[in-house]
Specification:
This protein has helices spanning 36-49, 60-64, 80-88, 101-114, 126-132, 163-172, 186-198, 222-229, and strands at residues 50-51, 70-74, 93-97, 119-122, 139-145, 173-183, 202-204, 235-241. By secondary structure, the protein is an alpha/beta fold. Residues 1-22 are annotated as: Disordered.
């Protein structure tokens, strides 16, 4: 989420005893105390809903036991929006990715409480998930709501929306699939629009307008409502894979 603290530059220095990893991270590994409900979600929900990189390239029909429209959300925070979307569309399947452990626990606890079965969860780097686990041409939507804006100019390179990422997302979407982004930082919205407008194989669903009105299918979060009270804007972008 966009109120996440920034990661020091020194954190990019690799440990020679650690496995190789990407040099630049677009997210922050945040510590946080687990509530009883979140821990219950991890303990009871992870065996049912959790996914790992070690599983390799997924057979999504086998994973969910059906063929259905598929949505992947990167950075679901505490999981409230993902739960709401999954409950509103039981005929669809959802995969969520989040590195904040209490958020993962909260989502898993919500799945247990609601009885939903159309959600699966990763707790690791989204780039690695896309590379190693999500088949090409398998997603109807990819959602990126309120990612870290890295608003300092020297940190702009950490923003997840970059040309290489746009191409990676395009490969994972079906033709006709949609990459839906939302941010409450105007400069980041402009950056997203610039990157995606130059990315091959996409069409901006807003056309010359640039940004789409807030889609009804995107839940309004507590984070967003707080921003609205403070007079912050929110910008939604939808780019459709056409090639």
């Amino acid at each position: 989420m966009s109120d996440t603290p920034e990661l020091p530059e020194s954190a990019d220095t690799p440990n020679p005893d650690s496995p190789p990893r990407r040099a630049i991270r677009s997210f922050v590994m945040r510590a946080g105390r687990m509530t009883e409900g979140q821990q219950k979600g991890i303990d009871q929900g992870w065996p049912r809903f959790g996914l790992t990189l070690d599983q390799g390239m997924l057979d999504l029909d086998a994973l969910f036991g059906r063929s259905a429209p598929r949505t992947l959300e990167i950075g679901f925070g505490m999981g409230h929006s993902l739960l709401e979307m999954a409950a509103a569309a039981p005929e669809q399947d959802f995969i969520g990715i989040e590195v904040h452990r209490p958020g993962v626990g909260a989502l898993l606890n919500g799945l247990l409480t609601s009885g939903l079965s159309n959600v699966r969860v990763f707790d690791c780097d989204a780039i690695e998930v896309l590379n190693r686990c999500i088949p090409d041409g398998s997603l109807d939507r990819l959602l990126l709501f309120f990612p870290d804006p890295w608003h300092k100019k020297k940190h702009n390179k950490r923003r997840i929306v970059q040309p290489a990422f746009a191409e990676q997302v395009r490969r994972k979407l079906k033709v006709g699939g949609v990459f839906h982004m939302a941010t409450d930082w105007e400069h980041y919205a402009e950056h997203m629009l610039e990157v995606m407008s130059a990315a091959p194989g996409y069409r901006n669903q807003a056309g010359d307008a640039g940004y789409v009105p807030r889609p009804e299918e995107r839940p309004v979060t507590k984070f967003e409502r707080r921003g609205e009270r403070l007079g912050h804007g929110v910008w939604d972008l939808k780019f459709e894979r056409v090639d």
